[in-house]
Specification:
- By secondary structure, the chain is mainly alpha-helical.
- It has 2 domains: 4-93, Leucine-rich Repeat Variant (Alpha Horseshoe), CATH 1.25.10; 101-220, Tetratricopeptide repeat domain (Serine Threonine Protein Phosphatase 5, Tetratricopeptide repeat, Alpha Horseshoe).
- Helix content is 75%, strand content 0%.
- The protein has helices at 4-18, 20-27, 36-43, 48-61, 67-73, 79-93, 101-113, 117-130, 135-147, 151-164, 169-182, 185-198, 205-220.
- Helix 4 (48-61) packs parallel to helix 6, helix 8 runs antiparallel to helix 9 and helix 11 packs antiparallel against helix 12 (185-198).
- The longest helix is centred in the C-terminal third of the chain and has 16 residues, at 205-220.
- The radius of gyration is 18 Å and the shape is flat.
């Protein structure tokens, strides 16, 4: 089964490696001098380019308090804005804002994406030891656990990521896949629904939810 989070990882790594500023500069709509307050104002603009500029800038200078603003943009009528907002969320969530933890986290992602799984797990653990409240490190270690077929450990990591970031639709999706693997389709469907409530643009989750609902129905009969 191809999991959505692997595609998300590639997008998120791109954001972190090239920087959200590169993407936004290519759009030609804003510069590095835009403050967080100005970015937030732009997100309320009626103009698509202004909204895009604001959301992209929040990936760099936003705080976790801005997560609801970006989540609301996942419901925007413009597909471009929905995509930019999701990228900006990952850009925001993947910043530990720590000069030691952030490079370590990037190294862990690179290890993960080159399939060096034990090394990636160890490096994510180092990040967690340094920044235990950094939800994304827990989420990404959970992904590694899935790739290593350690589903119980993965669920625990996803669960903790969600405790730290209650908006984390990626962690909810991961928990759904873990419960499907365990044969608890009812619980899996619940996690998938919660993920889609937060982010209706998780296209791979819709068929996963359908499979979970069908399996749950079979289990009830």
């Amino acid at each position: 089964m191809a999991f959505q989070w692997r595609a998300v990882t590639k997008v998120a790594v791109l954001l972190c490696l090239v920087g959200a500023s590169t993407l936004a500069t290519a759009a030609g709509t804003w510069g590095k001098s835009m403050s967080r307050e100005e970015a937030l104002r732009k997100t309320a603009s009626a103009q698509v380019e202004q909204r895009r500029a604001g959301y992209l800038r929040l990936a760099e200078v936003g705080t976790m308090d801005d997560t609801p603003v970006l989540l609301s943009a996942l419901q925007d009528e413009e597909a471009l804005i929905r995509g930019v907002a999701e990228q900006a969320l990952w850009g925001l969530w993947m910043r530990a804002n720590d000069s030691t933890a952030d490079p370590m986290f990037q190294m862990a992602l690179e290890l993960m994406n080159t399939n060096q799984l034990p090394e990636a797990r160890a490096k994510f653990t180092d990040v967690i030891d340094l920044k235990p409240d950094f939800a994304e490190a827990w989420h990404r270690r959970g992904e590694v656990m899935v790739m290593m077929d350690a589903w119980d450990a993965a669920f625990r990591d996803f669960e903790h990521a969600l405790e730290l970031n209650p908006y984390h639709f990626g962690a909810l999706e991961g928990m759904g896949h873990c419960r499907m693997h365990d044969g608890d389709a009812e619980a899996a469907a619940g996690y998938f629904r919660r993920a889609l409530e937060l982010n209706p643009n998780l296209w791979d989750v819709y068929p996963a939810l359908e499979r979970a609902q069908q399996a749950a129905e079979r289990n009830r009969t």
